[in-house]
Design a protein that fits this description.
The complex is a heterodimer of chains A (about 260) and B (about 140). With about 260 residues, chain A is an alpha+beta fold. Chain A has ten helices and six strands. In chain A, α3 crosses α6 and α6 crosses α7. Chain B contains five helices and two strands; from the N terminus they run ααββααα. Classes of the chains: A alpha+beta (about 260), B mainly alpha (about 140).
Chain lengths: ~260, ~140
């Protein structure tokens, strides 16, 4: 039979064990609460970061993603492209555009009007398109034109310029970096190394100087500027009232009717 | 697993993660193509995508900062250090999961370096949570 002292010891040990167990349970509860709090803060931080990184939007932001690339690919899919020319060689007239990849109005036209022109005039064989990339807005324009010239050699000028416009940023902010150009080149199916080489040495690309020379010959001093070369060889200015598809179609029809 | 082992695991994983993020940071600023096992340009495509930057800061730089902060958390007093490590690792793992989703669903290319970093960040989150929940 246990002595009184032993009984007291046992009770004391049980009490201590119960206290220890309760203490551990309290600590566990506190730790779980702390984990919950930390996880909640982490979720908030991650959501903020996701929103800041562009979230799930498909906007034509600064970089490159899948959706704008897909839109560009779809726009020109199946349309013959050779150098700076888009469309069938048999088309009776040629729409000539002078553009600067940094020019926001050129971007506006490319994003809002070009698709209509390609769909209604180029795909149908009514017109073929010639795009002359100028480089007069600043150093970024020169780099962009050099890269576009490299894309032209791969017969991907239209994909390159369209994607560039979808990701266009504030002009002359130095955004035309190798990273930016690589992203556009990759999305457009252009060899990034060749695009970067073109951007690094635009003077090595005859197309860059040729665009400036032709613009000068035609007295074209702003972008975007459009001309229609008719079957007769006559050159007619195309002057849309706005840079959307409907305005562009109306201007083209007016120019064509003058033939 | 002892606290010492968990701290050691955190240090090793964070060092590997910092090396990967450091490499991607270097590649970014040097304007180089990241080395991609098997070629294909997937790493370059991901690294030049719009999701490669957050508020103008390359994600690789953020990753490097995160791994270095995780290492620094080991120097903090025990409770504070554990909480800081758990927060950093959970944020890192969550954002890495998002970036992996973006690679698969939007960019349609997987960067091996990013995937490796994501795995390391998830392991760090697991280790950090275990450390946080350990009852002494």
């Amino acid at each position: 039979m246990a002595s009184r002292v032993e009984q007291k010891e046992r009770v004391r040990a049980e009490r201590l064990a119960a206290e220890e167990s309760a203490h551990r349970a309290d600590r566990r509860r506190a730790q779980l609460m702390r984990l919950g709090l930390i996880a909640a803060v982490a979720v908030i931080v991650v959501i903020v970061a996701i929103v800041a990184s562009g979230g799930s939007s498909s906007s034509s932001g600064s970089g490159s993603g899948g959706s704008d690339t897909a839109a560009t690919t779809a726009l020109f899919k199946g349309v013959p492209q050779q150098g700076i020319t888009l469309g069938r060689a048999s088309a009776p007239a040629t729409l000539i555009e002078f553009a600067d990849l940094q020019c926001p109005f050129c971007g506006e036209y490319s994003n809002n009007g070009l698709a209509t022109v390609v769909k209604d005039y180029v795909r149908t064989g009514k017109l073929r398109y010639q795009l002359h990339i100028r480089s007069f807005l600043g150093p970024d324009s020169v780099k962009a034109a050099g890269a576009a010239a490299a894309a032209t050699k791969e017969n991907r000028l239209y994909q390159f310029s369209d994607l560039f416009y979808r990701r266009q940023q504030q002009e002359n902010t130095g955004y035309v970096t190798p990273t930016f150009l690589r992203g556009v080149a990759n999305g457009a199916g252009v060899d990034p190394a060749k695009a970067l080489a073109g951007a690094a040495n635009p003077s090595s690309q005859p197309q860059v100087a040729a665009a400036e020379k032709l613009a000068s010959q035609l007295g074209s001093n702003s972008t975007p500027a459009f001309y229609l070369r008719l079957k007769s060889g006559r050159l007619v200015p195309v002057e849309p009232k706005a840079l959307d598809g409907a305005s562009m179609s109306a201007a083209i029809n007016t120019a064509l009717s003058g033939s | 697993m002892s606290e010492r082992s968990l701290r050691r695991a955190t240090a090793v994983l964070a060092l590997i993660g910092a090396a990967i993020a450091g490499y991607l940071t270097w590649v970014h600023y040097a304007g180089l193509k990241p080395f991609c096992v098997g070629g294909g340009g997937s790493c370059e495509r991901v690294q030049s995508s719009k999701w490669s930057e957050l508020a103008g800061i390359p994600v690789a730089v953020l990753g490097l900062g995160g791994y270095l902060l995780l290492l620094a958390s080991l120097l903090l007093p025990e409770d504070t250090g554990r909480a800081a490590a758990a927060l950093l690792a959970l944020v890192g793992a969550g954002f890495s999961a998002w970036l992996t989703y973006v690679e698969l669903a939007k960019i349609d290319a997987v960067c091996q370096w990013c995937a490796a970093s994501a795995v390391i960040m998830v392991l760090l989150a697991i280790v950090s949570v275990i450390r946080l929940l350990r009852v002494e």
